[in-house]
C-alpha cells in the first residue's frame, strides 16, 4: 500500500507541475503578442486581360507587422489561375501605401488577393 500511495503522490505532483508550467508559458505568449489586424484587396481578371493592381488599405495609427521570426513585412499573396503577382516596389513604401500588382492573366479566369497584417498596438 505505501508504494501505491507514493506513486499516486508522484503522479499528482507531476500533473500540478505541468499545469503551472503551461500557465507560465501561456502568460509569456500573451505578453509578447501585439494587437494586429489584417487588411486586403482583391480582384478578378479574364483571359488575356492586361496587368492589374489594387491598394491594400492602411489603418490609421498602425504600422505593418513583421512576420514572426523575421524582419520582413507580414504579407500573403493568394492567386488563382495562371498569374504572377507581387507587391509593387514603386507604388509601395510600407509606411503609408501598399500596392499589389499582377501581370496578364494566362488562363480562363484569374484572381488575386493581397493581405497585410498590421500592428495597431500603441507605439512607444
Brief write-up:
With 124 residues, the protein is of the alpha+beta class.
Supply the number of helical segments: 1
Q: Compute the average pLDDT.
A: 83
Instruction: Please state the structural category.
Output: alpha+beta
Number of domains: 2
SSE series: HEEEEEEE
Largest sheet: 4 strands, antiparallel
Spans of 5+ residues with little confidence (pLDDT < 50)? 23-32
- Range of strand content: 25-35%
Give the termini separation: 61 Å
Helix content: 25-40%
Report the count of strand segments. 7
Supply Rg. 24 Å
Q: What global shape is seen?
A: elongated
Please provide a written account of the structure:
The chain has 124 residues and is α+β, with helices and mostly antiparallel strands. It folds into 2 domains: 33 residues; 86 residues. Helices cover 25% and strands 35% of the residues. It has 1 helix and 7 strands. The strands form 2 sheets. Strands 1, 3, 4 and 7 form a 4-stranded antiparallel sheet that branches. The protein is elongated and about 80 Å long.
Key terms:
single chain, 124 residues, alpha+beta, 2 domains, four-stranded antiparallel β-sheet, three-stranded antiparallel β-sheet
Topology (SSEs and partners):
Layout: H1 2-32, E1 36-46, E2 52-56, E3 63-64, E4 75-80, E5 85-87, E6 98-102, E7 109-119
Antiparallel strand pairs: 1-7, 2-6, 3-7, 4-7, 5-6
Amino acid at each position: 500500500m505505501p508504494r501505491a500511495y507514493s506513486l499516486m503522490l508522484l503522479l499528482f505532483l507531476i500533473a500540478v507541475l505541468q499545469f503551472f508550467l503551461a500557465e507560465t508559458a501561456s502568460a509569456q505568449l500573451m505578453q509578447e503578442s501585439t494587437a494586429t489586424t489584417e487588411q486586403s484587396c482583391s480582384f478578378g481578371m479574364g483571359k488575356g486581360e492586361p496587368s492589374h493592381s489594387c491598394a491594400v488599405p492602411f489603418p490609421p495609427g498602425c504600422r505593418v507587422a513583421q512576420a514572426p521570426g523575421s524582419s520582413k513585412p507580414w504579407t500573403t499573396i493568394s492567386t488563382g489561375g495562371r498569374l504572377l503577382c507581387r507587391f509593387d516596389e514603386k507604388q509601395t513604401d510600407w509606411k503609408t501605401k501598399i500596392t499589389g500588382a499582377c501581370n496578364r492573366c494566362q488562363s480562363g479566369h484569374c484572381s488575386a488577393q493581397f493581405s497585410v497584417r498590421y500592428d495597431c498596438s500603441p507605439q512607444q
